[in-house]
């Protein structure tokens, strides 16, 4: 298999794995702490490959797939992922060269922005205000970011993919 084809399937496989991880059920008590896996994987690819692979169109389609799989308001995650990818691509040249702790703080800021956007979308949909624990997910995702980034980067380097 050629490197280009292997690279493509690695990219698609990580995106599919993030959707599967998003669907893994957790006990009701831990539901608020569930990381937003599609956002983390899209952020990784946006930082590593830039606009070569991750575009706003891909983020929108990926978000629509996530919407269909989770059964939420159609377009909710699509809009959230588009905003997230837009900001990540806009500041990609800076974010890539941050030390890991600064990059983690930037990812936390992006995920908090994502939560705020979700709060606005759900408020317009007529849902009630979520509990305070609802804000825990971005912090858990930010804690997982260095490990996910290093894991995906190491696997990508072992496969010698671009």
From TrEMBL:
Short name of one Pfam family: MreD
Presence of the UniProt keyword Hydrolase in the record: no
Transmembrane segments: 56-74, 95-112, 132-152
Subcellular location: Cell inner membrane; Cell membrane
Membrane topology term: Multi-pass membrane protein
Keywords recorded for this protein, A-Z: Cell inner membrane, Cell membrane, Cell shape, Membrane, Transmembrane, Transmembrane helix
Recorded superkingdom: Bacteria
Keyword NADP appears in the UniProt entry: no
InterPro entries according to UniProt: Cell_shape_determining_MreD (IPR007227), MreD_proteobac (IPR026034)
One GO term of the biological process aspect: regulation of cell shape
Gene Ontology CC annotations of this record: plasma membrane
Family, similarity comment: Belongs to the MreD family.
PANTHER family: ROD SHAPE-DETERMINING PROTEIN MRED
Biological role: Involved in formation of the rod shape of the cell. May also contribute to regulation of formation of penicillin-binding proteins.
NCBIfam families: shape_MreD
The protein, known as: Rod shape-determining protein MreD
Organism: Dyella choica
Gene: mreD
């Amino acid at each position: 298999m050629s490197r280009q084809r292997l690279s493509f399937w690695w990219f698609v496989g990580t995106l599919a794995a993030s959707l599967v991880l998003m669907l893994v059920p957790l006990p009701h008590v831990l539901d608020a702490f569930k990381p937003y896996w599609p956002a983390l994987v899209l952020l990784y690819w946006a930082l590593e490959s830039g606009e070569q692979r991750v575009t706003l169109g891909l983020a929108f389609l990926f978000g629509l797939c996530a919407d269909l799989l989770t059964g939420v308001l159609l377009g909710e995650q699509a809009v959230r992922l588009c905003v997230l990818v837009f900001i990540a691509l806009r500041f990609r040249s800076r974010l890539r060269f941050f030390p890991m702790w600064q990059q983690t703080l930037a990812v936390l800021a992006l995920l908090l922005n994502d939560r705020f956007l979700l709060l606005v979308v759900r408020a317009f949909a007529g849902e009630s205000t979520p509990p305070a624990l609802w804000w825990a997910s971005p912090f858990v995702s930010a804690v997982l970011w260095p490990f996910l980034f290093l894991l995906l980067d190491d696997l990508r380097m072992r496969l010698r993919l671009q």
